[in-house]
Amino acid sequence: MEDILRPIYQERASQQNTLGILMIEKRQNASPITDTFDVVLLVIVKEAEQSVFIKHYTYQEQKAALHIVSEEQLREWMLLGTNRKIVDWLFNGKILFDRNEYVDHLKTELRDFPFYGRKIKMGIEFAKLIRRYTDGKAFFDNHHYLDAYNHIVHSLHHLARLSVIENGFHPEITVWNQVKQIEPEIFKLYEELVTSDESIEKRLELLFLASEFLIHSRTRSGIGHLVEVLEKKESWSFNDLINHDELKHYSVDLAILLEYLVEKNMIEVTNVETKGQGIFHRYYSASKKLS
């Protein structure tokens, strides 16, 4: 197979812009790792006009995909976890070309999973968890049980990913297999939600109670990165926070996370007068109880 695909990647390997090339083969029928393709070629380049460029090929009744990805895009995926296949590809792909051991160093970095990178990823997952939990609870309180169910499933998934990261591992596509080993309590909650014979209302009621406890127990570790940023200044406007180089990755989930933490007295709000009568600017700072 490698010989057949050689003409596709060999030209890329000769270009100075190419940092590394990996081949990922489908390991089982209909594997989600390769999007059902028999083989994927991942070409990492230093710079590119398009951050992701993909071509599909057919050969001997089989399918192949070529993914050309910029280093910047790859780093973003690794940080934000928005392309979970990429970790599997880097860990398990066969290295076909490696300029100055770039791919080998990347694999070492993934295995070591630097603590700073973990803190950012935990913060992003915790913000997503709070978003899903809060929205789900609102739907539940308004008796929209199917919408609440959808959100609580997603919140448990973020809780599972948070747990995996907290334990020093990268969340994989088969995250529930990881969680079953690492945090069986969360796995059991998920299992009860999807397999229980109880009514959907009763299942959700129990799940929200249990989730509240699990969220509370992870809040300090989940907001560690956010607190580090907050402590760099006495107080922050929301606009300054959402445009901060690191916090911008929290995206639309940052506002609801802040409000959740204000309710829990973990973040303090200072009102500053505006020109308008009785209207105040709202500024945020880390609570002294977190020190």
Automatic annotation (TrEMBL):
Positions of the Nucleotidyltransferase-like domain: 1-118
Gene3D superfamilies: Beta Polymerase, domain 2, Nucleotidyltransferases domain 2, Winged helix-like DNA-binding domain superfamily/Winged helix DNA-binding domain
Residue ranges occupied by any YgxA-like substrate binding domain in the UniProt entry: 119-218
InterPro entries linked to this entry: NT_sf, NTF-like, WH-like_DNA-bd_sf, YgxA-like_substrate-bd, YgxA_HTH
The YgxA-like helix-turn-helix domain, residue ranges: 225-285
UniProt-recorded name of the protein: Nucleotidyltransferase-like domain-containing protein
Protein source organism: Falsibacillus albus
